[in-house]
Amino acid sequence: MVKWSDFERAAIQDIFSKIDYDVVGRAAFSRCLIVYPWTQRYFGSFGNLYNAAAITSNPKVAAHGKVIMAGLEKALTNMDDIKTTYKDLSVLHSEKLQVDPDNFNLLGDCLTIVVAGQMGAAFTPEVQGAFQKFLAVVVASLRKQYY
Amino acid sequence: MLSKKEKKLIKEIWERLTPVAADIGSDALLRMFASYPGTKTYFSHLDISPGSAHLSSHGKKIVLAIAEGAKDISQLTVTLAPLQTLHAYQLRIDPTNFKLLSHCMLVTLACYLGSEFTPVAHAAMDKFLSAFAAVLSEKYR
């Protein structure tokens, strides 16, 4: 079980209460596809991902950004047992989607950078630390059912 | 692979950040220490608390070196030769840490530049910092 300090809990809840899920989901996911183009391998059915402009205006990318944020919301509301909460999601990513789990870190990094851009100076080193710990637990839980 | 456009963009960004090198550098370092505590082990000889003179001067050093490299990216191996030797034979920082500092540098840039740090700028900067780190570790073995 992961131990969260009061500061960490508050910081993480605060971030999610401040961000616009639709905007951030879409921005983080499209950044991932732009900055790490090999991640596009999982999205052959998404249509035009030819360049940054196409990716940021692609409606399927925006829709999938929302799906991702909904998934993170589940972790947020079950912070004390993300591992169990994510069991089915982990099986999905491993067996059906067959996503290399290293990609989870790439998306996590992009999400961190998008949140940083939105929050500016309020995204202090300590707040970043708490957020990255949350993402690390999320990623570890998503990796858990891979074998 | 960095395009001409990307090289120009990177050079411009670092030129703008040179006057605030100490702020940018110390911010990135603090972020790295907070998110990746293992990195602190390389700094037992310095005072790395927020606002310390050591942190400020060390951050400045790092940013100025990156900015120097950005001036002519095709010459990175030449520009970084002395730093290559320093890191390989004296500092011997495990190169996986370069990735951690690079990520935190990107976060600092995102906070500082806001919406100006577009996906295209982010991609270019990530590629540049990866190349910089790779050149820095060339003499390790």
Automatic annotation (TrEMBL), chain A:
UniProt keyword terms in alphabetical order: Heme, Iron, Metal-binding, Oxygen transport, Transport
Domain named Globin: residues: 3-147
GO MF, any single term: haptoglobin binding
Keyword rRNA processing recorded: no
InterPro entries: Globin (IPR000971), Globin-like_sf (IPR009050), Globin/Proto (IPR012292), Hemoglobin_b (IPR002337), Hemoglobin_oxygen_transport (IPR050056)
GO cellular component: blood microparticle; haptoglobin-hemoglobin complex; hemoglobin complex
Domain of life: Eukaryota
Record keyword Nucleotide-binding present: no
Alphabetical list of CDD domains matching this protein: Hb-beta-like
Signal peptide: none
Entry's family note: Belongs to the globin family.
Protein known as: Hemoglobin subunit beta-like
Source organism per UniProt: Poecilia formosa
From TrEMBL, chain B:
Domain Globin: 1-141
GO annotation, biological process: hydrogen peroxide catabolic process
Any Pfam family matching the protein: Globin
The keyword Nucleotide-binding is assigned to this record: no
Recorded family membership: Belongs to the globin family.
InterPro entries per the UniProt record, alphabetical: Globin (IPR000971), Globin-like_sf (IPR009050), Globin/Proto (IPR012292), Hemoglobin_a-typ (IPR002338), Hemoglobin_oxygen_transport (IPR050056)
Protein name, per record: Globin domain-containing protein
GO CC, one annotated term: hemoglobin complex
Organism: Poecilia mexicana
Keyword terms: Heme, Iron, Metal-binding, Oxygen transport, Transport
Coiled coil found in the keyword field: no
Any one GO molecular-function label of the UniProt entry: haptoglobin binding
